[in-house]
Amino acid sequence: MTVVKVIEKLKLNNAVLIEGLPGVGNIGRVAVGYLVEEMGAKKCAELYSKWFFPFVMLHDNYKIHLLKNEFYYVKAKKKGQRDMIFLVGDCQSLSPQGHYEVCEKILDYAEEIGVKEVMTIGGLATGDLEGKERVIGAVTDKGLMKKYGSLKIDFKAGEKVGYIVGAAGLLLGLWKERDKDGICLLGQTTGFPIVTDPKAAESVLATVTKMLNLDIDMTKLEKKVKEMENFIKKVEALQKRALMDITKSTQQKGAKGDEQLRYIG
Amino acid sequence: MTVVKVIEKLKLNNAVLIEGLPGVGNIGRVAVGYLVEEMGAKKCAELYSKWFFPFVMLHDNYKIHLLKNEFYYVKAKKKGQRDMIFLVGDCQSLSPQGHYEVCEKILDYAEEIGVKEVMTIGGLATGDLEGKERVIGAVTDKGLMKKYGSLKIDFKAGEKVGYIVGAAGLLLGLWKERDKDGICLLGQTTGFPIVTDPKAAESVLATVTKMLNLDIDMTKLEKKVKEMENFIKKVEALQKRALMDITKSTQQKGAKGDEQLRYIG
Amino acid sequence: MTVVKVIEKLKLNNAVLIEGLPGVGNIGRVAVGYLVEEMGAKKCAELYSKWFFPFVMLHDNYKIHLLKNEFYYVKAKKKGQRDMIFLVGDCQSLSPQGHYEVCEKILDYAEEIGVKEVMTIGGLATGDLEGKERVIGAVTDKGLMKKYGSLKIDFKAGEKVGYIVGAAGLLLGLWKERDKDGICLLGQTTGFPIVTDPKAAESVLATVTKMLNLDIDMTKLEKKVKEMENFIKKVEALQKRALMDITKSTQQKGAKGDEQLRYIG
Amino acid sequence: MTVVKVIEKLKLNNAVLIEGLPGVGNIGRVAVGYLVEEMGAKKCAELYSKWFFPFVMLHDNYKIHLLKNEFYYVKAKKKGQRDMIFLVGDCQSLSPQGHYEVCEKILDYAEEIGVKEVMTIGGLATGDLEGKERVIGAVTDKGLMKKYGSLKIDFKAGEKVGYIVGAAGLLLGLWKERDKDGICLLGQTTGFPIVTDPKAAESVLATVTKMLNLDIDMTKLEKKVKEMENFIKKVEALQKRALMDITKSTQQKGAKGDEQLRYIG
């Protein structure tokens, strides 16, 4: 049960999918969320899945909605631009096999509506305090490295890290299996996965706007991040929650009343 | 393998499903269990699932039954009432993806027999000792908030909590995907999920009876809770057991005899 | 992928399935294993499953076989006896949902070959040193309690325990859903699930032979248990291993070389 | 979703499949990887699976690929040799049931292209510092023990170990269910599963070349292991990572900000 619910039927032209799901430093989530808002992108589909947390979220204080990933699109407005579809959302899959299934569903939908290239945005938590403006890249094919060679992307990701976790990596790995190409941009961030890093998001965003030939007013980013704060807190809480589920039970160790639990079978 | 076993075929009229599965403070379980008894509701279906614990329970000391969720119904008896179907049971799903699958099966059955609205009952463990009489609400749509506006439901759930876990939340989130509406009522409770809170159950029950225009004698609640004690203890033990499964293995750390377990492969 | 591989096609008459898979105190495994040997039962089917450990076992020092459950049968030899099919094996399912799926497969096969009644044998670890000769029973239906009422079975299992874990319980719970009957016999044992208790096995065995009107020489039990020792050690090691899998990773905590594992995504 | 992607269609003659996936001491991975290189084996298929880690790996610093198992083949070149197909890769399955599913897919493909015998290579971590040159064997059938009897394989594996974990064992157990035969060779190694042991790999390799009548220059093994170092480090990191996933969450215990996580449902 992983469902893509189409809201508006689309056929895009030479489109690029830009992924920004919650992850390390929430860099993709912040950067792509800002693009969606600034460009007035329109929602065209939602995805929900049994592989997400068995929770519902509350918005506007009283309103329930399932955890979701959402697709927004903008058509090319001037020469040098491409049709774009943005992927944002509340969470990624909770289980390993779920990651594969959700990413395959996303790519099925992307292919169907005419996506040709996939761009994923994530964070690289190095623990270093320096070099944070750096944007690190990895691609499915050498051609893309040349195509985007004039931008200051550090394509030596492999020196810093052995692999890319979750949707930012898997979407590209599975896309390559379909003989298609894509690029991953990672903003370098200091800390622990759970702390949002808007500065790193800004660095990546600057690169993305150049790649896609967009005119985006970056001055509102900080303000927008503040507005998104409530949502971001929930997403961070979700991520913490995932970590805590195991922890909680461990803390129960000394729980009394175990006599009722005599093992049998 | 999630099976709904129909005992009596039904077609209800404008019915409301009222969920009260075990959860935080067992508030839903106690409140809905009391309604089932007081109204003499009749069992119409049972659900069991591979996503429940791999246990059987014992009742009347000697009799084995699978862990189950049960559906009971009452038809409207006077004007201003609606047909009602109650969902109670031994447990919720043990795994995240199981939660989604079991809730979908419940809603499939609900739709089939004519349910129009879903009402879920749960607990909100705040740790606070005060304000326990409060009933907190969340809805799938603003309309329902207005419909039940005259009752003292605090519709600012989102200020206190980011999400609703398990069946109390998922049933509504998935119901909304079917373009249908529902409401969640949460009784505020102090403590840890595993301690039953009949007082909080009473507060929620008072609200539910007003919403559904029922005449329920509440004086027997405390007595009934005592009668249910044996069952509740088992349910609490089940919940503890789930937490202990991981813990137990952790306690094994120092176990001797590991020499026989030389790693190979 | 749970496969029942039929070795000999059978049609039994009014048969009883007697389950003795590894579990608490290995009581079922020892008791039913002894019956298989003493009665010269013939193997008629094997079951293996993706829900078992991803291991193979070695026997005769050099020979590999998958983890399996095995079915052996004996036809009634004299009046007052019934056709019998014994279920023994290396292990039970490793995951909760696997337990349900494996038990359903076992019951599908049992129904197909003519089984009418299921008898499961397990252990009840009370931690008490006394009362070990007691055999505790639970049934799917009152009728069976009467049928076996003349034997000294303590049918107040529910006073000592809330539920029965694993195959010993689930086979009966799922069998009851097929509108068929069965009984569970539990030998009371002191200790931890992982220590084999041949004395408790003997108590249960004495009851089983009366129930099934068998002439079994019990004097060889102790000797046989010694012969089975090597096999039992492996089974116990398997059970320990399951517990250790989580533990091991926890012990890795302080592992160095984590720098190579900078989190990314 | 476990996919075998065929690159070159094959029909082999009386072929042997030689498995060398990452495992204890990476003995299989090093030994079979060396054979692939030295013999100039050609890639004929790749396998990826939702049961692998939800990661992509980076090679050549910038290039993304899914975690994979790979098949390489060499046809017999002289009398006394057989067609050979080698199985190497980045990882094994992350979950128990995944192991079964991936191994079944491997064997489906093997059967299809004409494999008659399966040979798996693994490590046996005894903790002993002595006897490391020993190669320990286990087979699916006595015949194979005789066939390879002239080589110094210690067929008393069962004395040292009760079972063989993962692909090295399961491929043979499941192959036997198809009424086919195979052999497992284990290099004895001292240490913890995560440290590569090229010496033990060399001992096994010497045995394999005799079994398959190959002329392999072993002098380059040490050099090749150094060249493979970067890859091996990643594989070791993957294995550590699997262990750390649980650990990490445990370390979160004292995490602040839990107030936002009031339990609800």
Please describe what this structure looks like:
- Chain A is an alpha/beta fold.
- In chain A, helix 1 crosses helix 6 (198-212).
- The first copy, chain A, has helices at residues 27-38, 96-112, 142-147, 157-160, 167-177, 198-212, 221-227, 229-251, and strands at 2-6, 15-19, 42-49, 55-59, 63-66, 69-74, 84-89, 115-125, 135-139, 153-154, 163-165, 181-189.
- Chain A has a single domain (2-261), classed as 3-Layer(aba) Sandwich (Rossmann fold), CATH 3.40.50.10900.
- The first copy, chain A, has 8 helices and 12 strands.
- At the A-B interface, strand 4, strand 5 and helix 8 of A face helix 2, strand 9, helix 4, strand 11 and helix 5 of B.
Topology:
The structure is a homotetramer of 265-residue chains.
Chain A: E1 2-6, E2 15-19, H1 27-38, E3 42-49, E4 55-59, E5 63-66, E6 69-74, E7 84-89, H2 96-112, E8 115-125, E9 135-139, H3 142-147, E10 153-154, H4 157-160, E11 163-165, H5 167-177, E12 181-189, H6 198-212, H7 221-227, H8 229-251
Parallel strand pairs in A: 2-7, 2-8, 8-12, 9-10
Antiparallel strand pairs in A: 1-3, 3-6, 4-5, 6-7, 9-12
